[in-house]
Amino acid sequence: MRNHTSGLARDLEVLEVLSFAEAFTSGGLGVNRIAELTERDKGQISRVLKTLSSSGLVDRDDKTRRYSLGPRLYSMAMRTKEAHLALLSEPRLFELVAQTQETAHLNVLRGGRVLTTKTVVAAQALRRSGWDGIVSAAGSTASGRVMLAGLSDEEIELWWLEHAQDDPLPALQTAFTKPLEPINRKVKRQLPAKNLKAFLKILQEVRDLGYAISDGEFQPGIVDAAAPVRDSSNIIVAAISTGVPKERVGSQFDSLGQLVSGAALRFSTDLGAPIIGPA
Amino acid sequence: MRNHTSGLARDLEVLEVLSFAEAFTSGGLGVNRIAELTERDKGQISRVLKTLSSSGLVDRDDKTRRYSLGPRLYSMAMRTKEAHLALLSEPRLFELVAQTQETAHLNVLRGGRVLTTKTVVAAQALRRSGWDGIVSAAGSTASGRVMLAGLSDEEIELWWLEHAQDDPLPALQTAFTKPLEPINRKVKRQLPAKNLKAFLKILQEVRDLGYAISDGEFQPGIVDAAAPVRDSSNIIVAAISTGVPKERVGSQFDSLGQLVSGAALRFSTDLGAPIIGPA
DNA sequence: GAATTAAGTTGTGCATAGGTCAACCTAAGG
DNA sequence: CCTTAGGTTGACCTATGCACAACTTAATTC
C-alpha cells in the first residue's frame, strides 16, 4: 500500500521535537538543530517552520530566530475533552489537597499511557513546576492501574501485549536527549508484574479495594494512591491521585486510599455518575 | 515563488475546523463534515485524519467514527511559555479573587489579539465554563490596552493598521458557524477609538494610571479592569484582569484598578521584575 | 431481516507539491 | 575586514498526495 500522508507525518515530527526540546532547552531551537534531529533538509525545515508559525502552532523569536511551541496549541488544547475534565476537577482536587496537605493530580489514560492533566500543589510543596502534560507508563503508576482495572480482560490483555514493557518516559524523549546532552542515565525498567495473569490478579485487588497504591514503583520513595473517576455512563474516565513521600505516610495506606476514593467519588457525582456502592 | 508547504497548511486547516467545532458540537465531526468544511476530498481527509490521530493530535472515537481534538495537544500545550506563565499566576489570581469576589484572568498578547490563558472563577460565579484559550480583539478589552501600552509608538501604529478593525471573534469561527447553524447574528464592530492619534492618547492615560478600564466595550454590562505583568527584563508579558458586572462596581473604578494593579505587581515580582515605582 | 442509503476506507493514474542541492543572504566574531 | 555559521530562497526533478471511483461497513427503513 502506498503511504498518502507521510509528508504530514514527517512535518509533525517537528512539533514532537520542539515538544521535547522545551524540557531541556530554553529559548527554543534553530532551523539547523531541528533539521538534524528530524534528519531532514534545513531548507525544507525552514519552510515547514514558516507554515507552522503562520498558523501559530510554533512561535518564532524574531531576534534569535529560534522556534518553540506556539500559543495556538494552548488555545486548541483548552478545547479538548482533557482540558474540560481538568477544569471541572479543580475544586475536588483542592479539597483533597486541603485534607492531605499533599499534591494531587488528575490523570487520564491515553494511548496506553497515563497523561497528567491537572496538578494542584500543596502549599508546603517544594517543586513548583507541575506534572501537567506529562506522560508516564500505566503499569507502574497507581493511576494507571486504577484505570486499567476499569477495562475488560480482553482489553487489558491487548494493553499488556502492547504497553506493559513501555519505558517510563516516551521513546522520543530519550532519542532526543542523546544527541543533545550526552547523559547516559540508565532507565531502570520495572515491570508491573511477572506475567499477565499476575497483573490481572493485581487489578482484581484494585477493583475490590476501590483504589490502588503504588509503593515507590514509579518514583522511588513516593507512595502513590489513586482512585477511579466515573462519568454519567459509569465508565472510568480518569483517576485522581496523590503522591506522598514514604516517610510521611508510614503504613497508613488505607486512610490515604480512603481520602483519594472520597475525592474521586465526589468528582464522579459532579459528572453525573450514578451513585452506587462498590459492586 | 512557488509554495513549498501548502499541503501542510491545508492539512492544518483540519485542526482549525475541529478547534472551532468543539465549541458548537459534541462528539466531534465525521470525515464527510470535515471534508465539506475544508473543501477537500473525503478520501484524502480520511487519510489525513489517520495520520493526525496516530500522532495523537486528534482523537478518534472508534464507535461513532468521529474525530475531535486529541490529548497530544494538551500535553504539548503544557510545555508552552503560555502554560508556564499560567501555572505561576495561579496563586496571585486566587488572591485577587479572594479580594474582589469576582472572576480573574491572566491574558497574553499574541498575534495582535488577546489570549486568555488562565481563569479563576469566583465561588459565586454562575458560569463555570472558562474563558481559557479564548482569543479576543485587543483594542476593546482592558487587557489588550494594557499590553499595547507597553509597546513603542511604532509598534502600536503597526498594530493599529493590522488589527484595529479585527472582529471580536476570529474569522474562521464565523465562517464555520454559517454552514453549521444559520444564526446570522450581527457582530457589532466597535472601534476602540476614532483614529490612531486618539488611541495613542488612550494608551498614554493607561500608562499614567497603571491600569486600564473598559466600561462595557467588550461585553455589555461588564466592567473590565486590567494591569500589566512584567518579567525580569521589565517587559510587559501579560495582563491580569477581572470582569465585574456593572451594578456591582458602581463608579468605584479606581479601587478596582488598585486591586488589580496590586495583584499584577505581586505577580511581576514573582517573575523577578525589578521593583520600581510607576515611572 | 432484507433492502436501501449514508458514511468511511482503499486503490490507481497523473499532475503537482515538496525533496535535494546549491547559491545567496545575514549576523556574529576574530 | 574577512571568515564562518545559521538561515532563506531558487530551480530542477521525482516521489507524493489529489481526484475520481470502487469497495466496505454501518445505520435506517419497511
Report what the structure shows:
The structure is a homodimer of 279-residue chains. Chain A is α+β, with helices and mostly antiparallel strands and 279 residues long. Chain A contains 11 helices and 8 strands. In chain A, helix 2 crosses helix 3. The longest helix of chain A has 20 residues. The radius of gyration of chain A is 21 Å and the shape is globular. Chain A starts with 5 loop residues before the first helix and ends in a 9-residue tail after the last helix. The relative contact order of chain A is 0.11. Chains A and B meet through helix 1, helix 3, helix 4 and helix 5 of A and helix 1, helix 3, helix 4 and helix 5 of B. The first copy, chain A, binds a DNA duplex (30 and 30 nucleotides) through helix 1 and helix 3.
Short characterization:
2 copies of one chain form a homodimer. The first copy, chain A, is α+β, with helices and mostly antiparallel strands and 279 residues long.
Topology:
The structure is a homodimer of 279-residue chains.
Chain A: H1 6-24, H2 31-38, H3 42-54, E1 58-61, E2 66-69, H4 71-77, H5 81-100, E3 104-110, E4 113-120, E5 135-137, H6 142-148, H7 153-163, H8 171-180, H9 196-209, E6 212-215, E7 222-230, E8 236-245, H10 246-249, H11 253-270
Antiparallel strand pairs in A: 1-2, 3-4, 3-8, 4-5, 6-7, 7-8
Chain A binds a DNA duplex (30 and 30 nucleotides) through helix 1 and helix 3.
Main features:
DNA-binding; 2 domains; globular; homodimer; two-stranded antiparallel sheet; six-stranded antiparallel beta sheet; 279 residues; 47% helix; Beta-Lactamase; alpha+beta; Arc Repressor Mutant, subunit A; 18% strand; 8 strands
